[in-house]
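Example 9 (inverse folding). The structure is encoded as follows.
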């Protein structure tokens, strides 16, 4: 699964113009921050703010030419994203906002995130046009293993299905290493032995990307980043909605453990990660609260019972510890290096399915569905800020100040779990 984490390398290289070794070192440092979530009690698998990446890349490309100045713009952006996360977590507004947002607005954000993640891969010039056969085969395998009702039934009776099902979308990613070279869409991997672990080149990172090497951002850079920061947080807000939905779904399936998802805590941890990386290793994908595809896989296995997964933290924690070890293991990195773009594409397409599925499940009335659909379309066609404005106006116009969702949401009248 480290192949997806390593997918940040080509993004960092093409956006910041840094060498491969420096980008690889930045991925390793980013992996350390991932482990903070489980250790501090957050039950979701953290990741990037993935749907915001196109916005961030466009903002940086329009702000400055590749070089130190563009990196300064990234530092300013990530510092402000960190400030928003920390403010929302410290003040407690995050949990309050999440609980007060109408279902139709939540569903619209989720639906837009799913559509953006998928459209980015399939539109002209996307990764599917570069690796069509490999992505098609691997995503069908991933969907079958993660979401197929037929496969879920097989897992109850067939030993091979039980074993295969424990690894989530890993078999699909491993298949890319084989299928890609077979159809000549990627090069065959060359496994490097010799030195086993890669130590991050801190000196090179400090020189090429840290504010101590490229200089601290100017005031105008912080001001120019404000609109992008707002859109990034709106998108990240969708991750909190997704996290809450996935974790609640898993929590309802088992009575032996009470899972506490707290948006304030998730904001604080995400804000701390963004703050630290702003000063050491500013990251184009940014530091988000959720990796939807893997959280879905962990939640799916968790629901199979305690023998399959003792605690939700058994899944979240060990997954992130092992990806950190793996991105620094040279033989593993050399094996998956040619398939990095495909791994990134598979993650986005799986995330798209998860977000759309959850958005549909959240809608309890026709007005919920209609508002969510229009809001998502506006976000995809224009941007996140426009979509949010349209969603709020439609909610007030159609469902009223009291909100029709309260009358139609069955969870509103459900008894609390003991």
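The amino acid assigned to each position is listed next.
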């Amino acid at each position: 699964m480290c192949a997806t984490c390593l997918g940040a390398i080509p993004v960092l290289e093409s956006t910041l113009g840094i060498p491969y070794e420096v980008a690889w070192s930045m991925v390793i440092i980013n992996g350390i921050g991932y482990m903070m979530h489980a250790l501090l009690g957050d039950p979701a698998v953290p990741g990037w703010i993935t749907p915001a990446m196109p916005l961030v890349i466009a903002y940086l490309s329009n702000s400055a030419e590749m070089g130190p100045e563009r990196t300064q713009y990234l530092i300013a952006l990530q510092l402000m994203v960190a400030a928003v996360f920390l403010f929302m977590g410290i003040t407690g507004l995050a949990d309050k906002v999440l609980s007060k947002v109408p279902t139709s607005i939540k569903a619209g954000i989720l639906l837009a995130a799913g559509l953006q993640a998928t459209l980015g891969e399939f539109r002209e010039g996307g990764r599917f046009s570069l690796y069509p056969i490999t992505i098609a085969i691997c995503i069908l395998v991933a969907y079958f293993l993660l979401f197929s009702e037929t496969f879920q039934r097989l897992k109850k009776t067939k030993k091979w299905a039980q074993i295969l099902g424990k690894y989530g979308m890993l078999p699909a990613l491993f298949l890319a290493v084989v299928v890609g070279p077979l159809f000549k869409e990627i090069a065959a991997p060359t496994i490097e032995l010799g030195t086993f672990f890669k130590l991050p080149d801190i000196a090179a990172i400090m020189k090429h990307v840290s504010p101590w090497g490229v200089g601290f951002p100017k005031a105008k850079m912080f001001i120019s980043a404000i609109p992008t920061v707002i859109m990034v947080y709106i998108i990240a807000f969708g991750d909190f909605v997704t996290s809450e939905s996935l974790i609640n779904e898993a929590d309802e399936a088992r009575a032996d453990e009470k899972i506490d998802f707290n948006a304030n805590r998730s904001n604080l941890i995400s804000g701390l990660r963004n703050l630290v990386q702003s000063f050491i290793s500013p990251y184009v994908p940014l530091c988000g609260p959720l990796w939807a595809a893997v959280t879905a896989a962990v939640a799916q296995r968790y629901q199979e019972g305690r023998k399959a997964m003792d605690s939700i933290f058994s899944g979240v924690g060990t997954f992130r510890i092992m990806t950190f070890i793996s991105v620094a293991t040279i033989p593993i990195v050399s094996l998956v290096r040619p398939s990095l773009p495909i791994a990134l594409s598979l993650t986005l397409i799986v995330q798209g399915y998860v977000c759309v599925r959850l958005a549909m499940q959240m809608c309890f009335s026709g007005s919920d569905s209609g508002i969510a659909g229009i809001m998502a379309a506006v976000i995809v066609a224009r941007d996140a800020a426009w979509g949010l404005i349209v969603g709020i106006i439609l909610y007030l116009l159609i469902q009223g100040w009291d909100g029709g969702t309260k009358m139609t949401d069955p969870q509103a009248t459900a008894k609390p779990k003991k």
